[in-house]
Write a structure and sequence with these properties.
binds thymidine-5'-diphosphate, 12 helices, 336 residues, binds nicotinamide-adenine-dinucleotide, alpha/beta, Rossmann fold
Length: 336
Amino acid sequence: MNVLVTGGSGFIGSNLVRLLLAERPEWRIVNLDKLTYAGNAENLADLEGNPRYRFVRGDICNGELIADVFRTEKIHAVLHLAAESHVDRSILSPSIFIETNVRGTQVLLEAAREFGVRRFVHVSTDEVYGSLGPTGLFTEQTPLDPSSPYSASKASSDLLALAYAHTFKLPVVVTRCSNNYGPYQFPEKLIPLMIANALRDLPLPVYGDGMNVRDWIHVEDHGRGLLAALEKGEDGQVYNFGASSERHNIDIVKQVLRLVGKPESLIKYVTDRPGHDRRYAIDSTKARTQLGWAPRHGFEDALAATVRWYVERRQWWERIISGEYLKYYEKQYGGR
Ligand code: NAD
Ligand code: TYD
């Protein structure tokens, strides 16, 4: 089977490409990625020369290129991850989120319709459901109520994907996962940013009162969920993935500091994110019962392993924390 992974050079995509090559030895993987600031060819550099893997640098909004990839690679299935993925950047510059996440998704759906695929997995997020109060969980029936330009663009793309399933009978499955952590995550997201700052004795910027809650899942568990959705999902269905590991942000930050042996005096409370969602928490019963999926990683051990990865791979993140990233960091945190 020939599988197109979009955004395979990003955090979840690069972990997923490795997982697929290991778990499905008969599959060939084509990774199409624009290599934006968040994409890093180095993440999969060791796969160069592997006959079961091809990298194509390109934009999902480029219809001609996408059609060419479907035609020449005879794509049977798509795992669509390419996106602008960071809420804070979507608050600073929303337009690119609409372009990539909404229009880019439609270009891919159209190509999948034209050339025909057995499965189109549209990789979305629990953020499309908006914010929860202190109790309750997101189920697949929870109404969409996105609050940031990022989550609104993802919700829009979910609706487009489901419309293609409904109207054109495209075999679409939509997945909605909670916050991921693990190796190769760009250090603009909470956990790697806190690790990288702590290791350099820089302030750890905690938004608001630090009591916002996220439900954390290891990136490999998400990847296994995507594989299960591809192989066992039902056309037109939505599946939530989460590992039932709700944590307050401030507790994660303190845990990171303990793991790297740095003092809590590095914590700096900063002005809250505008429109900051208070709590996310996932009910993944449907994926567990219908896809036979379950997370394998416990949060405490997997966080410790993630911190060790960033300690040992300091070169990886130090190289990418330069140039464009420094400008972003100043814009995001400078006046706070
Ligand atoms: P990421 O930002 O690390 O990676 C995104 C990748 O997409 C990068 O390699 C980038 O170069 C590529 N890309 C961006 N625009 C592109 C374009 N126009 N054409 C081709 N490639 C392009 O993101 P991630 O955290 O790996 O997230 C991947 C997907 O999973 C996204 O769709 C995101 O919405 C979803 N998701 C992420 C999380 C999370 O916690 N990180 C949780 C649930 C869902
Ligand atoms: P993030 O990793 O950006 O993921 P998302 O907003 O998609 O959930 O942020 C996770 C949580 O951490 C969120 O509540 C915002 C908070 N946060 C901080 O407190 N400080 C930071 O510097 C960052 C990046 C995030």
